[in-house]
Amino acid sequence: MGLPQDVWPLMFELTNSVLGAGDPEYQAEVPEEIRGSGEAERQTSMSGEMRMLGYFAEILAQRRKEPKDDLISILLEADVDGERLTEQDILAFCFLIILAGNETTRNAISGGLVTLCEHPEERARLQADMSLIDGAVEEILRWTSPLHHMSRVATEDVEVRGTKIASGDRVFMWYPSANRDEDIFPDPYRFDITRTPNDHLAFGIGEHFCLGAGFARKEMRVMFEELFRRFPDIQVAGPPERLRSNFINGIKHLPVTFTPAR
Amino acid sequence: MRVEINPDQCEGHGRCAITAPDVFKIDADGWGQVIVDDVPEDQRVRVDRAIRLCPKQAIAWVTSTPAG
A150 to chain B: which residues are within 8 Å by CB? Predict the structure, then answer.
């Protein structure tokens, strides 16, 4: 997106505010006595969103005056059938990209490290032959399912395995469940970095398939290649501290031990 | 039977390559690519699935035989 590196920590903080709003650790902006409540979650999320949109409004103004070779400048120039995107469209897009682009992938990476440490044989196979990384990334995506769910509204009456869903009903698609569907995955509770085909739904399905899937895969691949190259003995040293959220399968803190590279 | 990816529609999501890895792959530039001329019988169900699941509906069976 072309954001300067000194605002990356702010983006991290605001992402936690918006997507980790239900976790008391990220509710520092609300009065202590209401932390942990639904109201605290609402206020935290709202505050994070306002601050982020405010930040991007400033960046948009700057890029209008002085375009750069970055995504925001491209969006400002974008022409859809003769129409420009509105300021609101671009702000919403920036908001979505920054949230969806960092929270999910970093949790896939931390969740992947936990998973690999919990399955030392699979981890040893990978470290002995890093050409298995692409399959390992897919299996980590299946196993961790960084997003718990998305929802859709049924457009017609339908019956799914004996459950009637009426037109207009809101349904939740639980990805961790779909990714352990025994009709699709033989032995679904086995973590297997060479599972093929690996028809997981961690990136969703249909027209709204994750826009950043290719980028996320690449980030995960590079991260694990570099991590194991530099810190081959890295180990999880305690239980992960998980995010309180029904949406993000997040890890907030993960103690690890490793021998520093010389 | 042959299957094709329409390069104008493909956005490189890679869904086909995880659904039918023996028929599709992601090329070095990140685009979907068909890696077999003739889809083996035992792969047809998977290819049907890949066609259905492609986010951009970019994949189709080739139904017409080129003249000559």
Answer: none
Full domain range(s) for residue A59 = 1-85
What residue spans define the domains of chain B? 2-62
Are A23 and A252 in contact, with CB atoms under 8 Å apart? yes
Q: CATH second-level architecture of B2-62?
A: 2-Layer Sandwich (3.30)
Count: domains in chain A: 1
- Residue at A72 is within a domain: yes
**Which of A198, A199, A213 lies nearest to residue B13, judging by beta carbons?**
A213
* Chain A residues with beta carbon closer than 8 angstroms to that of B53: 205-206
Mean pLDDT per segment of 10 residues, for chain A of length 262 residues?
A: 93 95 93 93 95 96 95 91 92 94 94 98 98 96 96 95 96 96 96 95 90 92 97 97 95 96 73
State whether A197 and B20 contact (CB < 8 Å). yes
Residue A188 domain flag: no
Smallest Cα–Cα separation from A52: which of A127, A107, A108, A1?
Answer: A1
A 129-148 near B (Cβ less than 8 A): 138
Chain B residues with CB under 8 Å of A200 CB are: 18
Residue A80 domain flag: yes
ipTM above 0.90, yes or no: no
Contacts of A217 in chain B (CB under 8 A): 14
Which among A138, A206, A217 has CB closest to B55? A206
Q: Which of A262, A7, A249, A258 is nearest to A105 (CA)?
A: A249
A257 min Cα distance to partner chain B (Å):
34
CB B3 within 8 A of CB B62: yes
Domain membership of residue A110 (yes or no) is no
Rounded Cα gap, residues B24 and B17, in angstroms: 5
- Give the C-alpha separation, A34 to A40, whole Å: 6
Compute the count of residue pairs across chains A and B with CB atoms less than 8 Å apart.
32
